Amino acid sequence: MSNPSLQQLRRALSEAGFEVYRTRGHEIHLAERPRENQIMDAGVIVTVGTPFIVTFTVRAQKSDFPGEDKTSLLHRARILADRCLSRGYAENDARERMLLDPGDHATVLDVWYEVTFAKSVEHLADTLDEAKFALALEKTAHKVDELGYLPRQYAELFSWPGPKKCAVWGDCFGHFGRFCHPISPGSRVGWWH
User: Fold this and answer.
1) Which residues pair with 60 in a beta bridge?
2) What pTM did the predictor assign?
3) CA 58, CA 81: separation in Å to the nearest integer?
4) Nearest to residue 54, comparing CAs of 36, 77, 31, 28?
5) b/e map 162-176, b = 16+ CB within 10 Å
6) Which of 17, 27, 45, 173 shows the smallest number of beta carbons within 10 Å?
């Protein structure tokens, strides 16, 4: 069977439960809702072709790490994708993106250091699996203190009094805002609660 057209892939993604953010050329940008206020982001892209290509972007924001240089911030972003390398993802772009004040384009509000990873996938079913995997990844490096807690201004966003369903451990009784479930011993990469 040949690979589906853009419209067939879009339909397959929708039927599999994905929300399409937008379509550009041969790319389908998948929607993520990273915040409770339902603001959408599109950090995962599925490209139609032979093979399919699943792409995602991770970032570190200068405002979260004001004393660090470009190299360090790109490294922080790359750390988020460490576990993807063993799945066949490869880095294909690293860039600095300035976020300008919409009312005054001379004012830089923040600078994002973004790294894009991509994987070629032969079959539609595997493409859907990889898209699901990529959507589940944490895509923004967050500043934590030496104990693994988010700064106070972020902690209140994650406060919740009871256990949380966790993809790794089931019920998790860790504090929201606490870094837990490291990928490897001593690692600062893992899931946020």
Assistant:
1) 113
2) 0.71
3) 7
4) 28
5) eeeeeeeeeebebbb
6) 17
